[in-house]
Design goal:
GO molecular function, one term (chains A, D): transaminase activity
CATH class of the largest domain in chain A: Alpha Beta
CATH superfamily of the largest domain in chain B: Type I PLP-dependent aspartate aminotransferase-like (Major domain)
CATH architecture of the largest domain in chain A: 3-Layer(aba) Sandwich
Keywords (chains A, D): Aminotransferase, Oxidoreductase, Pyridoxal phosphate, Transferase
Order of helices and strands of chain B: HHHHHEHEHEEEEHEEEEEHHEEHEEH
Helix content of chain B: 25-40%
Number of domains of chain B: 2
Distance between the termini of chain A: 14 Å
Largest interface: C-D, 210 and 204 residues
Catalytic activity (chains A, D): N(6)-[(R)-lipoyl]-L-lysyl-[glycine-cleavage complex H protein] + glycine + H(+) = N(6)-[(R)-S(8)-aminomethyldihydrolipoyl]-L-lysyl-[glycine-cleavage complex H protein] + CO2
Helix content of chain A: 25-40%
Number of strands of chain A: 12
CATH topology of the largest domain in chain B: Aspartate Aminotransferase, domain 2
Protein name (chains A, D): glycine dehydrogenase (aminomethyl-transferring)
Structural class of chain B: alpha/beta
CATH topology of the largest domain in chain A: Aspartate Aminotransferase, domain 2
Largest sheet of chain B: 7 strands, mixed
Distance between the termini of chain B: 55 Å
EC number (chains A, D): 1.4.4.2
Oligomer: heterotetramer
Chain lengths: 471, 429, 429, 471
């Protein structure tokens, strides 16, 4: 069994890049350091020429599907079109060449981008204060919950030990609570798949620090009692945090602040079209109320007259990133929002239209556990006797990236479909056609799928059992 | 209508009919409280206008100049091929490779990244990247607590990048300080009960530290040793795994990522095989498909938040796949000899500059300590010097606020630039 | 060793052994006369150094300013998507699609380009692009001779871009001149025996010409009518095929190609079905594969130089596939409505500028002639005006050398820029 | 049978791009032009959204092979690695935004690039004068022959009616001669596949204007008598033109001027690595002697002190392009040459090494009609009973782009293999392995190939018979 790793394509002495000749006669390592400090064996890295590098990684890319190649309705991931204009923006040498520690006076353009983006996110959320620093959605969550933690610590309220998490939540939510030294407590659902307000009233007490809500939730259902939920929490002195992963359903239609949300995170790589890049980098900017604003990470950007500067919020939780955050993603999101302005609402409208269309057309064949208006995504279940996994792999043979499967956990054999607003009706119709066809395909046939992909189904158990994670 | 939605009026009509509602508003009947107004955002711009603004603001930044700033982000050469590869749509617009059959490109590139990290650090396993160097350090601090079953409490010195230390503290890890003198850390007295001992080498001030001493001291105290290393330095310095480090972490930015005002970069983490289950984040492993064909897949998922939820090692899920790919392509282009040349050229140039500065009468803060490409020079007025440098078309070093300037020199700097730097500083800049 | 050759010393040795020679020099034993010296070229630079030179020289050009120059190349908006698509390695680094099984990407894009040209021109068939607009004109001149079986002799007026005329003449076609007055061509007397009559509309001075009159006159003289059209104008003007033109040609640069100091651009040519065998260059046609699957292939190869050699229609072989692809992607993004909007916006802005200039006391050379986005204004000193415009951060129009400035206005120009132009010119610039 | 054209993916009213709003109240077309001049029916173009455009053309690209994806030993095309540095150079906005008619003072950077490139090509060829204007190799040929034509016309020597073309020549050579109003006369080969000097002596007379030679010729064989050939021509008052398509075999090893060449063209897209782009754009720069220099196209670039300017050579044949030529390709080639300097000779050495290695390894199984030293390419013939076409299609299934087949015409079942210098020994070994395996594969099996490509073999006759060249 031969692998195709870059290292197999080299030969000792090959070089893929030529550096400028060193034009000074400085010192050598041997003169600076004792022999013991120096490397004895050279690392076993690939030694390859540039043409081989280009061909190797070009061909690797061709083993991948992306939004650019296929419909990619991966629920809760918002795989919308990534405009190339954003890439042009991020590659501008006037930004790409800027060192993060250049004095503010040398980086006014970059600071203006950040300041404007802060304002845009404040407007979209209705919350007055923003931090762009968190490097991913999960870190945005953590930042938010750490801010809540520090609020109580600085208030001397040491009894706030619990964070409530609905059973539909992303796995990151309970993990985040733990990382911030809270106990995560699960809360159940009502018949609509929404947070059970009665249970909430019972659970909330003086140990409650916050509830982490996702709205619309991971079933794609709007949390219709969110305002009441916020009231219950606020009356108990607790905060409402909103996971903004699903903000693509809310733009211009609902502002979290008005629903009582105290702090939330955004995924710039979901809602605001920065590319997912095979799993990152992202940007998990947060927005919060005046109360929590002093706890934001260091730094935030302020404007004084015509000058932009970094400031450390008074009771900052500190830094969550080495520098100012994933500036490249901020630049992309800023550019995206500027290309939409108030038309951002259309983004949400079309995303919700697309999801409901899929819901309407799949219903009858697929089971829809919460068959009412959905928002930007819809959870469905395969017809009796069929497995979500098999349908998913069958979709690959039809040329569609599968939806998210087996999530949310509260729905058996869940398939979470998020079409996004950038897909056309024709694409949805073709996808629906494939879904309906797969519903009729025998399980035996489905179990063989995929047969038209770069690989067939993998032996995942073997990977864990005989761990081999390097060449 | 927004820019990237294909819906015509007819499309909308037909879809609303299929759903069985009258208007788009009806789709939001369940939303409460509704936002009724119009978002107060600047009017929508065309792509052309938006990009003109990008150009305009880009000109408000001082770029395109020789940069002598380092302190965790380095102005190194990025080969053109790196950008060409990572902008391939299939890499750029794919998600975390949950469906391995159609994600082998991303998966194999992650496997290669892990392999490179393992090779450079001399440690057996690596994960599929964390957010950045600072977060790799903080995650390593938490990892030492899990592995030693102690409270998260780590010993660090002033030689650790202060920004890394800040993130450790944000992550609610207690920090105890080790003595730091003449540019290096004194590991002779590690406080009892710490879960980890950190050693950054080269350290924040550019000086090569004694990882072996750090790991010896850590192990004697029942703690783990975490080495924080610039990956370029590992082309020439002994691998931390061979010096007793249990975990090695760092910032991968020097491997082919543009400065971009601080990110996106990528962190790296490596450890030994027995600690693999305490690594946070994704790990990609080798396996076979149904036909016996070799393939790659995310593995040991049981550690992760989407399975273990509150009991996960970390909440990390999205990783830095694309920047890790940049590091992978960069390393492939350079190879071990290219990396060595980058390191050696930087060392040579930095020492040339340090010597020229000393010859001009300036003192190095740690004249006896062995440094690679970064050093502290004492100047009468660092702020003034940096202003003079900017005026002369250069970005000066980091003002340490105490009369010291932390100067970084990469392979990109030319003799002409180094001489110009000395000229400006010597002329009372 | 050169930069992109993978050969190690061992590789070279093993290969020489397999060949059965001792040294690399032996591989050139048959070469006579041998070049014995070293090429007198500047020493090899690394990629980084070479690109630094590119940056340095780029700064020696005046770019990034509003441009009022046209005369055959236009400063139009190029969507970001165009560059992203044409830089895909599979398009960029492939050859002419001689092996259709692995070239359907290029082939289908050529088929789409041909279709776009046919739609815009109202003519039935198009080829897979010629070098540029000037060469399309020259090839059309030769084509009229083949089709009419007359000597290559064509009638043109001063309204034809003089550079196009020059290329016609280089191609050894005789040119006879038609009268040109008040901005338009007088087609009433076409000389006997010409093979073709050319009508450029909008013409070199921006004025819309009467293609119907031209074709009527041409046909009456037994000649063919060749219309030369800016493709953007065809979004709003009647298609030349519907006005009697036998051949339509032009420059596709306005469809998504950057100015790039004059190239690469792409020419286009279209004609009616019965003349297809006299078209030069590649034609891509639809067919099926062995399994009946629809596919595309280069066809009617019998016209081409690699089959017919000395009897070919033209020596053209390499075509402009990549720039034709740019035009195809651009047109897909714009659609018919977008093209119309580009045209209408340019017309509106050009007329605004012309009116403001007239209001400031300047005369248009052809005040009665209907123009689209280009016009001639009479100025006291065109050279001085252009110098003043450059000083004010603008690139002025083309100095016709006779007191006239040919001014082009595209959709890119803003009101602010147009007003600034008037301001500079009115202030005696 | 459904097509997959972009037009099928649209719907009336969709838009893929948003333009800036027109901010002036200028006039409208209806006010300017009579109704008859205006378009009545809108062209039937695709009406699609941007995401669809990206996905459509991305997937189209994936139907293609390029150097970036596969070994591409297409003889006479020099499919070498295209460095990405060249693309970075050509996309620099300081060049990309430059209008060709900006006054010379505004374009000194671009003129310097052109002037330096002229110098580089002069040095490589040994010929003193260069024109960069021809837009492709075929146009470089035509330019050269038109210069010869004008030389004789301006000299009043109207009897020079013939151009000699070897039977191995590219089809463009005789076509070029015809376009320049010469009669092309074919000349035969000696036993080495080279121009037959004896026949040449017989053919050359006072009607001969030039011989068009390719060196090394299209069999990959060096024209060993080139100096003698030049002498024969020069004695008769005729010129020697060299087709420079194969210059990749000559860099730093042979300078055409020293062999007596009077005028030649380069293919910047072959020898100097500018991308082929699916068949263009290229650049067919020419170099010539002092005698022919005054006939070069208008303009050439000159340097006076520190200032660069365009000049029209005194007896110029005129323009062969609308502007100054394919400047983007010049920029790439200039950058490539600067990255090599005198090391250009290594390019040639490795190209010739690779070709001879293939020759040595295939010999015995494949027939080598001229089995002596080859230069940068080698012509081989399949084993008895096998067709070049079948071997070619079989190579596709092995992952290799086929060599050029049925060319040169003088070799039956010719397969012209040009590996180029940027391929590694391992790649050649694998390719050779595939070639040897195909030599053993039955013809019946081969006739089915390719089976692993995006399409199978096409019905080419149908395409011509039922011409459909548009949607």
């Amino acid at each position: 069994m031969v692998d195709n790793l870059i290292r197999t394509k080299g030969r000792e002495g090959r070089r893929g890049y030529t550096l400028p000749k060193n034009d000074v006669d400085g010192t050598s390592l041997e003169k600076i350091l004792p022999k013991a400090a120096l490397r004895k064996e050279k690392p076993r890295l690939a030694e390859v020429d540039e043409p081989t590098v280009v061909r190797h990684y070009t061909n690797l890319s061709r083993q991948n599907w992306g939004i650019d190649t296929n419909f990619y309705p991966l629920g809760s991931c918002t795989m919308k079109h990534n405009p190339r204009a954003n890439e042009v923006a991020a590659n501008n040498p006037g930004f790409a060449g800027l060192h993060p520690l250049q004095p503010e006076a040398q980086a006014q353009g970059a600071l203006q981008v950040m300041h404007e983006l802060q304002g845009f996110l404040a407007e979209v959320s209705g919350l007055p204060a923003v931090s762009l620093q968190p490097l991913a959605g999960a870190q945005g969550e953590l930042t938010s919950i750490l801010m809540v933690k520090k609020f109580f610590e600085d208030s001397g309220d040491h009894g706030r030990t619990t964070v409530l998490v609905p059973s539909t939540a992303h796995g990151t939510n309970p993990a985040t609570a733990s990382m911030a030294d809270f106990k995560a407590k699960e809360i159940g659902l009502d018949e609509h798949g929404c947070v059970d307000v009665d249970e909430l009233r019972e659970l909330v007490d003086e140990t409650t620090a916050a509830l982490m809500i996702t709205n619309p939730n991971t079933c794609g259902v709007y949390e219709r009692n969110i305002k009441e939920i916020a009231q219950v929490l606020h009356e108990a002195g607790a905060f409402l945090y909103m996971d903004g992963a699903n903000m693509n359903a809310n733009l211009g239609r609902m502002r979290p602040a008005e629903a009582g949300v105290d702090v939330m995170h955004f995924n710039l790589h979901k809602t605001f079209s920065t590319p997912h890049g095979g799993g990152g980098p992202g940007c998990g900017a947060i927005a919060c109320s005046e109360t929590l604003a002093p706890f934001r990470p260091d730094p935030a950007v302020e404007k004084d007259g015509e000058t932009y500067s970094f400031v450390r919020p008074a009771q900052s939780i500190g830094r969550v990133a080495g520098f100012h955050g994933n500036f490249g993603q901020m630049l992309r999101a800023w550019n995206y929002i500027k290309m939409h302005g108030p038309d951002l609402r259309d983004v949400t409208d079309m995303a919700v239209l697309n999801a409901n269309y899929v819901r309407a057309r799949l219903g009858g064949t697929y089971q829809i556990p919460y068959d009412e208006l959905c928002k930007h995504e819809v959870v469905v279940q395969p017809p009796k006797g069929k497995k979500a996994l098999d349908i998913a792999k069958g979709l690959i043979d039809h040329g569609y990236h599968p939806p998210t499967i087996y999530f949310p956990l509260v729905v058996k054999e869940a398939m979470l479909i998020e079409p996004t607003e950038t897909e056309s009706k024709e694409t949805l119709d073709d996808f629906i056609g494939a879904m309906l066809e797969l519903a009729e395909t025998t399980s035996e046939e489905l179990e063989e799928a995929p047969t038209h992909a770069p690989t067939r189904r993998l032996d995942e158990a073997r990977a864990a059992r005989q761990l081999k994670a390097r060449w | 209508m927004a820019r990237f939605t294909p819906h015509t009026d007819d499309d909308v009509r037909e879809m609303l009919d299929a759903i069985g509602v009258e208007t788009l508003d009806d789709l939001f009947a369940d939303v409460s409280p509704k936002f009724q107004g119009e978002l107060d955002l600047p009017p929508a711009l065309s792509e052309y206008e938006a990009l003109r603004d990008v150009d305009r603001l880009a000109k408000e930044n001082d770029t395109g100049l020789p940069i002598f700033l380092g302190a965790g982000a380095y102005d190194r050469i990025v080969p053109s091929t790196v950008g060409a590869v990572i902008s391939r749509g299939e890499f750029l617009t794919s998600y975390t490779p949950y469906q391995p059959e159609i994600s082998q490109g991303t998966l194999q590139s992650i496997f290669e990244f892990q392999s490179i990290v393992s090779e450079l650090t001399g440690l057996e396993v690596s994960n599929a990247s964390v957010y950045d160097g600072a977060n790799a350090v903080a995650e390593a601090a938490l990892m030492t607590a899990r592995l030693t079953k102690r409270d998260p409490r780590v010993a660090v010195s002033a030689g650790l990048n202060p920004r890394y230390r800040e993130v450790i503290e944000t992550y609610r890890v207690e920090v105890v300080e080790l003595p730091f003198e003449d540019g290096t850390t004194d590991f002779s007295e590690v406080p009892d009960g710490v879960s980890g001992v950190f050693v950054q080498s080269p350290n924040f001030f550019g000086v090569v530290e004694d990882i072996e001493a750090a790991s010896g001291a850590a192990h004697a105290a029942g703690a783990l040793c975490v080495a924080v290393c610039d990956p370029i330095s590992l082309a020439v310095l002994e691998a931390p795994g061979n010096l007793g480090a249990d975990v090695a972490v760092g910032e991968a930015q020097p491997l082919g990522m543009p400065l971009l005002f601080g990110g996106p970069y990528a962190g790296y983490m490596a450890t030994d095989q027995k600690s693999v289950r305490q690594l946070p984040g994704r790990i990609c492993g080798e396996t076979v498909d149904k036909d016996g064909k070799l393939a790659y897949v995310l593995t040991l998922r049981g550690r992760e938040q989407d399975i273990r939820r509150a009991k996960a090692n970390s909440n990390i899920c999205t990783n830095q796949a694309l920047t890790a790919l940049a590091a992978t392509v960069y390393t492939a282009l350079m190879g071990p000899e290219g990396l060595r040349e980058v390191a050696e050229s930087s060392v040579s140039k930095a020492h040339y500059l340090a010597e020229r500065l000393q010859a001009s009468g300036f003192r190095l803060r740690y004249p006896e300590a062995p440094f690679l490409w970064e050093f502290v020079v004492e100047l009468p007025d660092v702020k003034k010097a940096n202003e003079a440098l900017l005026k002369a078309g250069m970005v000066g070093g980091l003002d340490l606020g105490d009369g010291g300037m932390l100067v970084a020199v990469t392979e990109k700097r030319t003799k002409e630039e180094l001489d110009a730097f000395v000229g400006v500083v010597a002329n009372g800049g």
